[in-house]
Amino acid sequence: MDLLDSMKVYVLAVEKGSLSAAAAACGISATMAGNHLRTLEKRLGMQLLQRTTRRQHLTAFGEDYYARCKEILRLVAETDVQAQNLQLAPAGKLRITAPLTFGAEALMPAMAAYLERYPEVNIDVVLSDRVVDLMEEGFEAAIRIGQLPDSSLIARPLAPYRLMICASPDYLARKGTPRQPADLSQHECLSFSPAALAHWRLTSHQDDVCSVPVSGRLQVNHGQALRVAALHGMGIVLQPAFLLETDVRAGRLVQLFPTHALPSRPLSVVYLPDRYRSPKLRSFVDFLVERFS
């Protein structure tokens, strides 16, 4: 006899007060229900129910075994539901948030492939450099840059957020090309904020670290605006590689110190642990890991 079927009969016999009631609930004969119980007791080598013509009583072991059977059956049912969900096609509205520059320059170009792969999913993307509360603000996932604080969120790592130092050919023709990292302190350097402008850190192939104090007259709190400023020859820019690589390939910008390593920052997608069963969220997270790994 199937062990799970026997457990189900036993649990129902306990809850409904008799084997005949359990048999009726399972759609089997009372004799078959008794066979299930005897099979369990033989397997365990322990008596589960003490039966008389009028009443039945749980043994001490039977009471403990009843609780364990309930938990096992619950887990099996939950796993079955999860397996059914996995087979469902992702569908519905997915609300996510991402930092401004990454969202506009890296996430948006990738969304075409995701939407083509999952035609039943609609995506609401909110771009913000603010750290949002997923539960309070109704988001299912967020892309975050930097070290993550301890929290109840589940995090999947993506490729690190790499940086590049670039300038336009026009700027370099007018101001000269810095030949070593220390030369940067003599140039106009563009920055997201004054705090980000204080020092730029470069590491050579020999692992020599150079922390260069830099300065500049222009700070803009938007990565795309800094890129445009660099394209117009306003200074040297330190920004994410995905924002500048196309301009470097096209010759609109020149990468400086390509053999030096620049600090990278962790990039992650985070979500609430109980939401991952959703096929649409699972498909989106798996897509991000595939695309940005």
From TrEMBL:
Protein family membership: Belongs to the LysR transcriptional regulatory family.
A GO molecular function held by the record: DNA-binding transcription factor activity
Location of the HTH lysR-type domain: 1-59
Protein's UniProt keywords contain DNA-binding: yes
Protein's UniProt keywords contain Transcription: yes
PROSITE patterns named among the record's database cross-references: HTH_LYSR
Name this polypeptide is given: LysR family transcriptional regulator
Superkingdom to which the source organism belongs: Bacteria
Keywords: DNA-binding, Transcription, Transcription regulation
Biological processes annotated in GO: DNA-templated transcription
